[in-house]
């Protein structure tokens, strides 16, 4: 199984109020094809920035990011990204939103693909609806369909279920596992929900407070079907919680 994603010695800083703020430092990670990686850490530690660098939406200061051996120099169809907000265009139907990234295809081909992925996320009946007519969970389903329709090798998820109620979140977590089982995408998810990380991920990357470094990479050996109430599940949750409580330093938060 080849390495789909490689992150080597990545550093990133921003200038805030005229001062340099180090956000990420010495990030090294190898992600295998088909893996599900969850990234957890304190607010402001650079988790979302790292995801944007992989997506090609931010440029790392130093280091190298490659997908299938090709350097990431900007956005590409080999990577799809889902944000906490669905970011659907309100003046377009759900069908048109899903088709937005499809280039060089006929109208019939676009319709066939969008129908396929809207059926996958159980939104076939709502393809002519507009985002304002959908619930938050349904809007996120549409965002997932939009990201998957271009058939990316790597799916990046930036707290996609963070704004949803608990039951809808659990439902979409289950749908995400079904999508992974069907398409075998490599997935990286940023989350503040430790239970979500343990439930979904093959490995959990624990990051330090800013500047974000990788403190540990925890392999979750719980099998495919995981019992949220089980003692082994609780063991992994506690292990990650313990990392957070080790860090006593309080640093100013930035949206990074």
UniProtKB/TrEMBL annotation:
<dbReference type="GO" id="GO:0016887">
    <property type="term" value="F:ATP hydrolysis activity"/>
</dbReference>
<dbReference type="InterPro" id="IPR027417">
    <property type="entry name" value="P-loop_NTPase"/>
</dbReference>
<protein>
    <submittedName>
        <fullName>ABC transporter, ATP-binding protein</fullName>
    </submittedName>
</protein>
<keyword id="KW-0813">Transport</keyword>
<keyword id="KW-0067">ATP-binding</keyword>
<feature type="domain" description="ABC transporter">
    <location>
        <begin position="5"/>
        <end position="234"/>
    </location>
</feature>
<dbReference type="InterPro" id="IPR050166">
    <property type="entry name" value="ABC_transporter_ATP-bind"/>
</dbReference>
<dbReference type="GO" id="GO:0005524">
    <property type="term" value="F:ATP binding"/>
</dbReference>
<keyword id="KW-0547">Nucleotide-binding</keyword>
<dbReference type="InterPro" id="IPR003439">
    <property type="entry name" value="ABC_transporter-like_ATP-bd"/>
</dbReference>
<dbReference type="InterPro" id="IPR017871">
    <property type="entry name" value="ABC_transporter-like_CS"/>
</dbReference>
<dbReference type="InterPro" id="IPR003593">
    <property type="entry name" value="AAA+_ATPase"/>
</dbReference>
<dbReference type="Pfam" id="PF00005">
    <property type="entry name" value="ABC_tran"/>
</dbReference>
